[in-house]
Amino acid sequence: MTALFIANIAPIMFAMLIVLLMIGYPVAFSLAANGLLFGAIAIHYGLFDPQLLQGLPQRVFGIMSNDTLLAIPFFTFMGLILERSGMAEDLLDTIGQMFGRIRGGLAYAVIFVGALLAATTGVVAASVISMGLISLPIMLRYGYDRRVAAGVIAASGTLAQIIPPSLVLIVLADQLGRSVGDMYQGAFIPGIGLAVLYGVYMFIVSIFWPKAVPGLPPDAITVREPNGKAGYLSLAAIVLGSVVAAWYIIDRAYLHPIWACASVGAADYAIALADKFLNLRILSKLTRQVIIVMMPPLALIFLVLGTIFLGIATPTEGGAMGATGALALALANRRLDWKLLKQAMDTTAKLSSFVMFILVGSTVFSLVFRGVNGDLWVEHLLTSLPGGRLGFLIVVNLLTFFLAFFLDFFELAFIIIPLLGPVAEKLGIDLIWFGVLIGVNMQTSFMHPPFGYALFYLRSVAPSEEYTDRVTGKRLAPLTTGQIYWGVIPFVFIQIIMVAVIIVFPNLVLASLDIGPKVNLNTIHFSAPPAEESTAPPTDFK
After folding, report:
1. DSSP secondary structure string, 276-339?
2. 0.90 exceeded by pTM
3. Which long-range contacts (CB under 8 A, 24 or more apart) does 14-23 make?
4. Which of 97, 107, 105, 134 is nearest to 221 (CA)?
5. How many Å apart are CA 467 and CA 474, to the nearest integer?
6. Angstrom distance (rounded) from CA 79 to CA 116
7. pLDDT grade for 476, boundaries at 50, 70 and 90
8. Which of 6, 41, 157, 175 is buried most deeply by CB count within 10 Å?
9. 527 pLDDT band (50/70/90 cuts)?
10. What is the DSSP letter of 224?
11. Which of 325, 282, 332 is nearest to 301 (CA)?
12. Nearest to residue 288, comparing CAs of 244, 237, 333, 251?
């Protein structure tokens, strides 16, 4: 029995970790305790060199001094500030007015705003809660099917998982030893493609099940022209108006005295300038409102992602600029106060501490796991699968999909990525592409019944009892947990389709990367020319 245990200590160690996690023991402590326990057992049987543990303090110090991980608190803080600055509310209201009159219009608005919030906040909780509070009552008020409404809100909120600046992409890049900027560029097209697939699904629903996604009635359209007609929308005017208005504001603000730009009234000054331009008669009221509402998030997206993609700023610097921009938007909306600031800082500190403790625990686990040759066991197990790289990808995605039922994305990133990354690299798989693929798969962890976090976020803000609608005065039924679970299932299948699409069309990820010719270090051979015969005169005169 002892010999069997010694021969299989690595798989037993991994199985014990899964058991601890499934019974609900805290992740960070599960990783650390499991690592130390099996480290002691391995030392007892002579399978582990105790001197390896002396490198643990240096590893922990390396984690604490990792500049890349600084982007996590920056983007978290930015998302929390934006959640309370009123930007999500303004976007949902305006885009809802823009699309609401067509069948499924509110669902399209939720998807569009979900993608926009994902590109500005990067925090799933902020997106799901915001859209659940604002859009769900409207969708239920005007007869949307409860499962469709719950599913589209939960799924659109999880776009913050894969569309940059996603927090999990930062962790994946760190665990795979790759650039966060490259990971962001690689994930951008798949993230937008996923939002498009959500929209295609809602279009299919509107065709074959129109009663589930009705358009808004005429009396629900509040943005109207002076003559009382519903506002018309000109996309060309939106694009032109946004460019001209942005140039106008920047130019005038630059010429304005420095003291005025530095004052609190600078935001009011810029808004007044924009309003002066946007009130031209060539633009409808709806078009003007769309331009005004869209400019701040688009400017913030460029400030964060544009500077990263152009190579002007690192992700950490982009996160710092994004946090500053979020504070400026909250200040402009007159919603920045000490209470808001304290709440955002407290939540950011908690989430950052949560990530760091998991990372420290995973370091303890990985050190002992590698010490008992667990990495070799995983490598042999996965490289011997039939089908080569395709077989490896199928098994890895099935494993990730299964574990996502019980673990969240941070736990998955810290536990399985350090084990799978070296094997993927040995098989010749690009690690940026592999990270994006696993990231899309891990996104389902937010929507998996029964433990998906997005489901919990939506459940916390959805009506759990019969209530009176504040606009129509009608009594409406609650949104049940079962309706939420059934609503997300089609979107889970869409996630699976997107995983397959990335495998079949890898250029969706690689096309946006500047990948030069790779050099395989294992094929490099060094050789020296043969030594020439010496022509020096003899020195032995005997």
Report:
1. HHHTSTTS-HHHHHHHHHHHHHHHHHIIIIIHHHTTSS-HHHHHHHHHHHHHHHHHHTT---HH
2. no
3. 14/369, 14/374, 17/365, 17/415, 18/403, 21/406, 21/407, 21/411, 22/406
4. 97
5. 8
6. 12
7. confident
8. 157
9. low
10. B
11. 325
12. 237
> Could you tell me the two tokens for 211?
């009663």
Question: Residue written as tokens 């509107």?
Answer: 206
Alpha-carbon gap, residue 389 to 396, rounded angstroms? 10
Pure H helices in 143-284:
146-157, 167-176, 180-208, 235-255, 258-262, 266-278
Q: Dig out the tokens for 20 from the structure.
A: 């601890």
- Cβ(358)–Cβ(32) under 8 Å? no
CA 5 to chain centre: 40
Neighbouring CB atoms inside 10 A of 4's CB total 9
Contacts by residues 2-6 (CB-CB < 8 Å, ≥ 24 positions apart)? 2/45, 6/45, 6/47
Q: Which residues partner with 224 through β-bridges?
A: 230
What pLDDT was estimated at residue 358? 83
Reported as a pLDDT band with limits 50, 70 and 90, residue 531 is low
Q: Give Dmax (Cα) for the chain.
A: 121
Distance CA(176)–CA(417), nearest Å, equals 7
Q: What's residue 220's pLDDT?
A: 62
Residue 84: Cβ-neighbour burial (10 angstroms; 0-12, 13-18, 19+):
buried
Across the chain, how many H-helices and E-strands are there? 26, 2
E strand intervals along 393-533: 467-468, 475-476
| Surface-to-core class of residue 26, CB atoms within 10 Å of its CB (0-12 exposed, 13-18 middle, 19+ buried) | middle
